């Protein structure tokens, strides 16, 4: 039996928001919300609500010794939180908006009622949990790399969510700064400055203005191989 035969073809599944919008009572149990850049959410102020991101990017992590430890990004189409797995996390989850974010806030009891009726086999939740599992797996790989390798690995993650200008160049997200990259890689800003300087002098990166641009994706991929970084697990 093939490895994918245990699960349905998720590409054919209905989007959760489509189900919710089509259900009676949607307007009574939901509303749109804007989150300002830099605003922080934890389980305490999210409460029993599902937040579906429509625009913007949120970074998810946890707090250790008053420091934010980055895990992964959440973008349009992702759920900010689900109470089903929050109890299994070893530390309190923390969500920080990297730019202005907007989305739908839906009462979780209403979500569960709609899913019980419209998705009895739990395909939507299964797909969500598998996607989240992959994100945590990539985070664990990053955490076990050397400091400089983590910076390169994080740039590769940013390439994945960036804008492909051409076959060989990628515009990184507007929110990318030295500080953001240092937080992602859990390294000092001075190390990030050193790596960025090397990439800029090697003509692989333009970072003198926003947005940053990877100028030579092929060379950057070769650099990943030279640094012995598992690129397949980064995207």
Short characterization:
This protein is α+β, with helices and mostly antiparallel strands and 235 residues long.
Percent in strands? 15-25%
- Work out the oligomeric state of the chains in this entry: single chain
Low-confidence region ranges: none
Largest sheet: 4 strands, antiparallel
Level of helix content? 25-40%
H/E element sequence:
HEEHEEEHEEHHHEEHHEEH
What's the gyration radius in Å?
19 Å
What average pLDDT do the residues reach?
A: 87
Distance between the termini: 27 Å
- Shape annotation: elongated
How large is the count of helical segments? Answer: 9
Counting helices, strands and paired strands, the structural category is: alpha+beta
Order of strands in the sheet with most strands:
2-6-4-5
Number of beta-strand segments: 11
Structure overview:
With 235 residues, this protein is α+β, with helices and mostly antiparallel strands. It is elongated and about 60 Å long. The protein is built from nine helices and eleven strands.
List the helices and strands and how they pair.
Blueprint: H1 16-21, E1 30-35, E2 40-42, H2 43-46, E3 49-55, E4 58-64, E5 67-74, H3 83-86, E6 93-97, E7 101-107, H4 108-118, H5 123-143, H6 147-160, E8 163-166, E9 169-171, H7 178-185, H8 189-201, E10 205-206, E11 213-214, H9 217-226
Antiparallel strand pairs: 1-7, 2-6, 3-7, 4-5, 4-6, 8-9, 9-11, 10-11
Helix pairs in contact: 6-7, 7-8
